[in-house]
Amino acid sequence: MSDAFRALVLDQNDKKVTAEFRNLTTDDLPDGDVLVRVKWSTLNYKDGMILNGLGRLVRTYPHVPGVDFSGEVVSSSEARYKPGDEVVLTGWRVGEAHWGGYGQMARVKADWLVPLPEGLDAAQAMSIGTAGFTSMLAVMALEEQGISPKQDGEVLVTGAAGGVGSVAVSILSALGYRVAASTGRAETHAYLRDLGATTIIDRNELTDTSKPLLAERWIGAIDSVGSTTLAHVLSEMKYHGVVAACGLAGGADLPGTVIPFLLRGVRLIGIDSVMCPYATRIRAWERLAKELPIDQLNAATTKVALRDVMPWGEKILKGQIKGRLLIDVQ
Ligand code: NDP
């Protein structure tokens, strides 16, 4: 079977990455167990890097980007999936090492898919997408380390108006935590309060790394910024505070000291959504379906047609996207 479909295809000429929409057929798709009709994808920070040829994330061109998608199974050589099943894919280096969700058809390994969680439709699942899934993994990491809404204090979310940050603020607030949201954009303050933030912090207040310890402020933190922000946040953690490190929107370095670990027993937990094991994925999606307030998810979501995605890829790298970008692939 070789249905024709549209896809955004990246190519590389003279080390410059170019993008164009092409008509492909299913014969063009890479090998895999499951053929999926992609309905929705999203724009994550990593998609922005890939669309702009940054970070050497894509090594082989031509390439179809899109690190996540939701859609419907067309055919499957694996017994787990049958035509008509609704599925979700995040991670596994799809959209970077394998063709991704910016085409109307995708062929992938069955192991990379999860069934669409009960309680979410395909568009809602991608309004959450990789970024929101990562936020839930970060919340689960804080819980596993004993952080609880019963504790006295706030959980800090950095890069709060971005994709990971917005969903993290919303989940934490719904779970009963007091949430401090750090942002560099004054125009997002009302939006962050609507998502449940009780305190708003200017992100410029979180960059001083000159002292290894500062006054204790946070019981937990979810950081999507890295660099001086993460180093500063570590120095402000309360005794036995826990930081979930998710991202590097401000830089991949960590210019701090080990003093917060040694004198306050601070714990720094890494969050990886890409190779996350299946059982954890299922648990995270079940919780997202139950615990993320859908009205807040809607407020955090901007819908964009796939044909219009390119300028948004530049905006996300400049930190100019509020919340989540849902890409309409059909
Ligand atoms: P977004 O661009 O939507 O959000 C990032 C936010 O970080 C921005 O909105 C902005 O928030 C803040 N920010 C941007 N630049 C800077 C800067 N120079 N200094 C300080 N703050 C800055 O991206 P995503 O939410 O999609 O991703 C966030 C990060 O998480 C990325 O680094 C991404 O690669 C990573 N990530 C990691 C995953 C994992 O598995 N570990 C999975 C998904 C994402 P504001 O305007 O509020 O200040």
UniProtKB/TrEMBL annotation:
Query: Do you know which Gene3D superfamilies this protein is assigned to?
Result: Medium-chain alcohol dehydrogenases, catalytic domain, NAD(P)-binding Rossmann-like Domain
Please indicate which superkingdom the organism of origin belongs to: Bacteria
Residue ranges occupied by any Enoyl reductase (ER) domain in the UniProt entry = 16-306
List the InterPro entries: Acrylyl-CoA_reductase_AcuI, ADH-like_C, ADH-like_N, ER, GroES-like_sf, NAD(P)-bd_dom_sf, Zn-ADH-like_protein
Q: Which residues form a coiled coil?
A: none
Give GO MF terms, alphabetically.
acryloyl-CoA reductase (NADPH) activity
Q: What is this protein called?
A: Oxidoreductase
Q: Which organism is it from?
A: Thalassospira lohafexi
